Fold this sequence. Notes:
The chain is an all-alpha fold. The protein folds into 3 domains: 45-240, no CATH class; 243-403, no CATH class; 404-442, no CATH class. The chain has 19 helices and no strands. The protein has helices at 3-11, 19-42, 52-63, 84-90, 98-123, 132-142, 144-152, 156-171, 175-188, 197-201, 206-222, 229-241, 251-258, 262-287, 291-308, 322-326, 338-348, 359-394, 431-442. Helix 5 runs antiparallel to helix 7, helix 5 (98-123) packs parallel to helix 8 and helix 14 (262-287) packs antiparallel against helix 15 (291-308). The longest helix has 36 residues, at 359-394. The protein is globular, with a radius of gyration of 25 Å.
Amino acid sequence: MYVAPVFLSQLEPRTARTTSEVLNFALWPFAVFTVLRTVLVKGTNFNITDDFAPVYKASLAFLNGRAIYNENFDLVDPHYLYPPSGTLMIAPLALLDPEKSKWCFVALNALALVLAWYLLLRLFRLSIKSVAAPLLLVLMFSSETVINTLAFGNVNGCLLAAEVIFLMLVLRRRDLWAGVAMGLTIAVKPTLAPLLLIPLLRGQWKVFITALGVPAVLMAAAWPLIKDPMDFVHRTVPYIFASRDYFNSAIVGNAGYYGLPVWLTWSMRIVMGVLVLISLWLLYRYYRSDELFFVTTMSGVLLIASWLLPSLGQQYYSMLVFPFLMSVALRNSVLRNWPAWLAIFGFMTYDKWLLDHWQSTGRALEYLRVTFGWGLLLVVVFCVLGDRYLAARREGRLDSGIDPAFLLPGADPEVPAKAPRPDAPANGVTAPEQVSVMEGARA
Length: 443
């Protein structure tokens, strides 16, 4: 008589008792099925853009001793741009038939994305049981950059995992292994190469031994095995550095599409470059001892600048700023304001803004939102850091850093930064202890 109620009580789902548990229970089903839908539906359905096809074709040509770098760059189809070292690394893809090979490649990138998600939580000391875990998973796999990386069959998922590993090893000062992670990505495509400025500024010279040595060794091994290696130098490299006015969200790409004069295009690039240099200087001068903030913030500034200012930037590169976006978890983050997230909306969402009835307006919204998003985020970083610097100089505390006043040791977080503090902390009492003392006094 009591067996059924006991059995049913075991099947009763656990009821949340806190707001955090409610959010966890609500978000995890969304997270799991968002991942499954993105991988199984977007990653396997037909897509007009196929980044994997030229990669497979090049792998097959390499294994059969045929020419690889003979692309017709007059066409707008995806082209094979990996160097010989990258060709050597991806050659095993052609051991399978094209369909199975692509599914394996998509699965590999999906696993790399999940690994990057887990490592990002570890990097910011967030538990997998926290609300941040499912929320980050939902946001990652709902973004344009992840969806199109898997849909197009691109390698960006592996690059993101390698980037997070690189940043973690740099922070832990495992320099040679950090260089290995970076070197493997450079051997395939040098998208992450600007991040080498971080160990350079931190004096971690050993990183460069393996970061440059690994791709050099792979290039030396691949060069004699490629039938047409000099075509990579004479044909592919010039195309890589040339600007184009299609599928290009860099300033020069949209400027070419809309026919802007050269002087205006260069003016925008120079002004944005100056803002970036000032931001990098402020980060180096005042934040290099705040290691996690320095490394993640500088990584975002460097990467966005490397897409916006040179010749080519595509929206799905934005995946590589996930470590920067996660820095919002830090109290002194430069992303804790609404303009930053307006910018992030511009280049992260999967929305389409094309309009049937107002086509020119819709094209402008669709084509410019990524460029404006990247540019606005660089402006936000500059403004936040610049405002902090000016405030600290005005208050005569530049020697102790430029963090906002409410983050200084002993400051009460409930008191606005510009308001006079009625009760300074006693000597030797840290900020958390001071808050506890004040709460106890209120009680």
